[in-house]
Amino acid sequence: LDLDTAKQELAEFIPHVKNISDSSIRKMAGRDLARFKEFKKQGIAVRFGRFTQKENEQIRRNVAEFLSLTGIESAEKVLFTWRFPEEREAIQRLKAEQRFCEKISEGIPRPWRLIYYRARKIFDPNNYKGRYTQEEKEKLKKYHAMHGNDWKKISELMSRSNLSVAMKFSEIKSAVNYGPWTREEIQKLKLAVKEVMKRKLEMEDASCVSSLEQSNEDPWVDREKLCQQLPWTEIETKVGSRFWRQCKQKWNSILAKKMSKGQESERETQALQNKITLIKRLYEMKVEDPNEVNWEELSEALGNLPKAIVQGQFYRLKVSSVPLWQRKTFCEIMDFLVEHKLPEFEEKL
């Protein structure tokens, strides 16, 4: 396909295709377009976001079948071929002959590139090495000073995964405060979010922001946009004393508090009603994995709260109400909430 035709056909499956580079579109036209059309015939939509447990298991099966087919000893050799320079040429030839791209993505309605990255995360032996020692943290700082954000190079030197070293450096690059947020920190966070939101508005509607800049008013932002993905690493830099995950969690808690209206007693009543509705609707969905939950439907049921707020409410509910929740499956968590917490909440209400 020519580039324009490829863009038009991919747009049916990938709404944000206009933001993808031309080289990536050409690759997707070759690797994904036929797959997407086949999934469409089966009535299956292309998925994005977090991988479900079923998809992770499918990736494991696909990789195991490819290893069995080719005789390659390990998933690491297939997915991190450059680590084995003596076997590299032979492995690459086998991957080409046995259509590695097709095999690894069988049965998964997602872009091939995302499946490949997920497989690398699952099978990277450097991805599960526990906490960083103080010596490792010092090495990480030193390697970053030498190589900048070349995480592939740093991961090889540290024998840790790319994602692991990048996220750990984000945490240790400056003095991070783990205690309660000060008033000054909260003000910095609000100002940082305001700046990035203003820039986003400017990109979407320059005339709107230019008129706002001439007045002394703050821009009016729809609350759904306040909960959308923000550039948290940039916000982290502006705040200075917290890393990005702390900034994200604090911002979501600020939104949740601001969006709760009325007197304290009314808020408590509404909070109880929300918990009851959340548990009942989640249980009625009969899903086995939280990634399969229709959060938009839940948002409507809870008074059109933004999806991120509803997800945060469920997280706090299971953490505060379900003992040893980390060891339980999603179904076990829901059974516990329905059997033990739902009657308690209804009685309180």
UniProtKB/TrEMBL annotation:
Residues of the HTH myb-type domain: 124-161
GO biological process: termination of RNA polymerase I transcription
GO CC terms: nucleolus
Domain called Myb-like: residue spans: 124-172, 173-255
Annotated GO MF terms: chromatin binding
Pfam families in the cross-refs: Myb_DNA-bind_6 (PF13921)
Protein name (Swiss-Prot/TrEMBL): TTF1 factor
Species this protein is from: Formicarius rufipectus
Lineage of origin: Eukaryota, Metazoa, Chordata, Craniata, Vertebrata
